[in-house]
Amino acid sequence: MSMKTHAMFWACAIVILGARDALGINCPGCTPLDTLTFDKMINSFRVSIVKFDVAYPYGDKHDEFAKVAVEGAPIPELFVGEVGIKDYGDKDNEELGKRYNIVKDDYPVMMIFVKNDKSGEVEASKFAGDFKSANLKNFLRQKSGIYLPLPGCLEEFDNLADQFMSTEDLSTKQQTYKNADAKAQRISDEKQQKRAETYVKYMKKILSDGDEFLSKESARIKKLLSGKITDTKMKELEEKTNVLRSFAREQSKTKDEL
């Protein structure tokens, strides 16, 4: 470890410990941030995800973010933080909310900050979809390349799904589909191959039916899940739902739209 890296490590550690003592940690794996520590921490990591919320958060959405924080904790390049905003007294951290056009009615809001290794500039994007851990992880992968797996998903095929959905060029989509099909056929593990074939099947359906297939298939699976099914079938359908998420483009707002 170089002297510069060593110094940065201890600087970050001091900031984290100071935040621990001053604010308390709202969820496992999260570091509380304020106007003094926010920029320092965001600029110290390649990728940061931060939840803007009330000062003492609770509820289902808070729990969903906590799941992502716990899974992301072992990843050295990923920082997970929370900004608790007060609308009373000294109105702590209100300035940070205003910086990103976040108002109380929006809480909680997750933002991702990705630092450019060459320029050092940080690009900010605001998550605008359904606040579920699976969608948050999908958003993290699409914006930063950091992969937090979902049950039933395969990283290599999630990347192929990204390639497939990121282009409007039909020939490129067809080539990606062929590549995915070939890779699926080479998988020796039966369970993994079945999962890979789900990606291939969805690509084929999108090529024939268009992107509307995704919403139709999602509705079909939700209907099946609401009925009487075995635990095994439920697990299979939930995994298919996760694969569908890999094809969905998570809603977000970029810096220019914030």
Explained architecture:
There is one protein chain. This protein has ten helices and six strands. The chain has 258 residues and is an alpha/beta fold. Strand 4 and strand 5 form a beta hairpin. Helix 7 (170-185) runs antiparallel to helix 8. The longest helix is centred in the first third of the chain and has 21 residues, at 3-23. The two termini are 38 Å apart. Residues 13-25 have low confidence and may be disordered.
Q: Got a strand count? A: 6
Strand order of the largest sheet: 1-3-2-4-5-6
Question: Mind telling me the CATH class of the largest domain?
Answer: Alpha Beta
Main sheet properties: 6 strands, mixed
Characterize the overall form.
globular
Write the layout of secondary structure elements.
Blueprint: H1 3-23, E1 31-33, H2 38-42, E2 47-54, H3 60-72, E3 78-85, H4 94-99, E4 109-115, E5 122-127, H5 133-144, H6 155-165, H7 170-185, H8 190-209, H9 212-225, H10 231-247, E6 252-254
Parallel strand pairs: 1-3, 2-3
Antiparallel strand pairs: 2-4, 4-5, 5-6
Helix pairs in contact: 3-5, 6-7, 7-8, 9-10
Task: Describe the structure in brief.
The protein is 52% helix and 14% strand. With 258 residues, it is an alpha/beta fold.
Defining traits:
single chain; 258 residues; alpha/beta; Glutaredoxin; Endoplasmic reticulum protein erp29; 2 domains; 6-stranded mixed beta sheet; 10 helices; 6 strands; globular; ERp29_C; ERp29; signal; Endoplasmic reticulum resident protein 29; endoplasmic reticulum
